[in-house]
Design brief:
Elements: E1 5-16, E2 19-30, E3 35-38, H1 45-52, E4 60-65, H2 67-72, E5 74-77, H3 79-92, H4 108-113, H5 120-128, H6 144-157, E6 162-166, H7 174-188, E7 193-198, E8 210-215, E9 218-224, H8 225-230, H9 232-238, E10 265-274, E11 277-287, E12 293-296, H10 303-310, E13 321-324, E14 327-328, H11 335-339, E15 342-346, H12 347-352, H13 359-364, H14 379-391, H15 407-419, E16 425-429, H16 437-453, E17 457-462, E18 474-481, E19 484-490
Parallel strand pairs: 3-7, 3-8, 5-6, 6-7, 12-17, 12-18, 15-16, 16-17
Antiparallel strand pairs: 1-2, 1-4, 8-9, 10-11, 10-13, 13-14, 18-19
Length: 491
């Protein structure tokens, strides 16, 4: 007997920001199949997920959902959902009107339960994903990896007919990735149908039976897993050649002077506590000239808090033994005095960046440290920006719309933006997060190019099991202890 489809798409097209995101998609999913949608950044995977989960409704073509799918629904776990929830909490934050000056916002436990009572399944999943210690914490106060786990538990407990997971291993430390792989294997052998969005073949679990490969909004290949992954056109799509890197431009003039000697950053016996929660305890770290440091540790260990102390964003630096660029913190220097010495790149900057700009304008905005371009700029800034685009193999993209580039190419453009002002330190917080294998290799190669050919030093933050740049010669590791984390520095 022929199995009835769970989901069918016929001739689906989607236009997003005046650009085609999906082109004539035909696809059928049955309840006995487990699918992965594979493709590089910009392939159209997220647009497809938004259509089948009814988050995007302005498409043409036909979407047919079975009665089972209509009854039990579809759950979608993605980074954009996490961002939307946190943005909502920020808008509703009423800390300034509260006597205790603290608004935790939506609590993790409340988000997971979504109005249901606690039961054995809730406690089992919370225990398995090691998030019981954050149930009474607000969403804005948990790490990216912890948020990923929270949204997954909420989705599983809703018992959907179809579960769509957008790169579920992203943002997880090594131990969490291993546990997530075990959970995915369990889900793939359950009555639930999964569609996984993946950027590289090695992220596809063994339990996936079918693969659809996409590129630029079109289906390149679809069918049984092994046959599709072995196809020559799929192999060439997922492993394109890398472009040629050019010479780095001459450093831009700096509007400040550094001490002739001594370390760039120095923290001695630094501790940070929020209420009853101890984030950092007795941290000692010296970042010497010539160092390129990798800061690593599990989700929620305090890496982001540590970075906020050295970039001037955290008021808890005052009164502590922290020296930045030869100046004791709290000696009268402004946050701007500190920030102008950094070039920064992180996922939050990328996702929040102003729309409607050309690539050249995005890079020029790095001179002013603005998310958008609001200041006058001239030939000097233009020429330097063009030279940095050429240095990173992006010269041909200068006049293109930033929005029209793939996610991976946008990340490369933002790296050029971070470097135009010749920062003393290039601070990279999970710069490969969200990138396919090709663009991950491109950005690591570019970081090494910068480290080898400029006086900018690199701080590379990572909690995933991915690669690090070859230039790294110092490691700052957050290692778990019974009472929290110990920060260990190794050269």
């Amino acid at each position: 007997m022929h199995e009835q489809p769970l989901l069918t798409l016929r001739g689906v097209n989607l236009v997003y920001r005046a650009l085609p995101a999906l082109r004539d998609i035909d696809w059928t999913v049955t309840g006995s199949q487990q699918w992965a949608c594979l493709g590089p950044n910009g392939a159209g995977k997220t647009s497809l997920a938004r259509v089948i989960t009814r988050q995007a409704t302005h498409f043409s073509g036909e979407l047919v959902r079975s009665g089972a799918l209509e009854d039990r629904g579809c759950a979608y776990v993605c980074f954009e959902e996490a961002r939307a929830l946190c943005d909502r909490d920020r808008k509703l934050d009423d800390s300034e009107q509260r006597a205790d000056a603290s608004d935790p916002g939506t609590l993790v436990g409340d988000l997971i339960l979504n109005g249901r009572d606690e039961d054995a399944r809730f406690h089992d999943w919370v225990q398995r994903l090691h998030i019981n210690h954050i149930l009474q914490r607000g969403l804005r106060f948990i790490s990216t990896g912890e948020m990923r786990k929270v949204l997954l538990v909420r989705a599983i407990l809703s018992d959907p007919a179809l579960l769509v997971l957008d790169n579920p291993l992203d943002g997880l430390d090594r131990a969490s990735q291993a546990e997530m792989r075990r959970i995915l294997d369990e889900l793939l052998h359950s009555s639930m149908t999964l569609v996984m969005l993946c950027r590289q073949p090695e992220d596809i679990p063994a339990g996936i039976s079918h693969v659809m490969v996409m590129d630029q909004g079109e289906v390149v290949a679809a069918g049984c897993r092994d046959q599709v992954l072995a196809a020559p056109n799929v192999q060439s799509l997922m492993n394109p050649p890398a472009g040629i890197l050019d010479h780095l431009p001459h450093p831009s003039p700096r509007a400040y002077e550094l001490p002739q000697d001594g370390p760039l950053l120095e923290l001695r016996g630094v501790s940070v506590r929020y209420g009853d929660f101890q984030v950092l305890r007795d941290v000692n770290w010296i970042f010497h000239r010539g160092s390129h440091c990798c800061v690593s540790g599990p989700n929620g260990c305090g890496k982001t808090t540590l970075l906020s102390l050295v970039t001037g964003d955290n008021h808890k630096a005052y009164g502590q033994d922290i020296t930045l660029f030869g100046v004791r913190r709290g000696s009268g220097e402004s946050v701007w005095d500190i920030k102008q010495k950094y070039g920064q790149l992180d996922n939050q900057l990328h996702l929040n960046f102003a729309r409607g700009m050309r690539v050249l304008e995005v890079v020029v905005s790095g001179f002013f440290d603005t998310i958008g371009l609001f200041d006058d700029w001239g030939d000097t800034q233009r020429d330097t920006a063009m030279q940095w685009l050429a240095a990173l193999g992006l010269a041909d993209s200068a006049r293109e719309s930033f929005d029209a580039l793939s996610f991976g190419m946008q990340r490369m453009v933002l790296l050029a933006r971070a470097m135009v002002k010749s920062p003393v330190i290039l601070l990279l917080d999970e710069p490969t997060l969200g990138l396919d294998g090709h663009h991950r290799r491109l950005i690591l190669r570019a970081i090494d190019h910068i480290a080898a050919n400029s006086d900018t030093q690199v701080i590379f933050v990572s909690h995933s099991a991915g690669e690090t740049p070859a230039c790294i010669n110092q490691h700052l590791r957050f290692e778990p202890r019974d009472d929290g984390f110990e920060v260990v520095c190794e050269a």
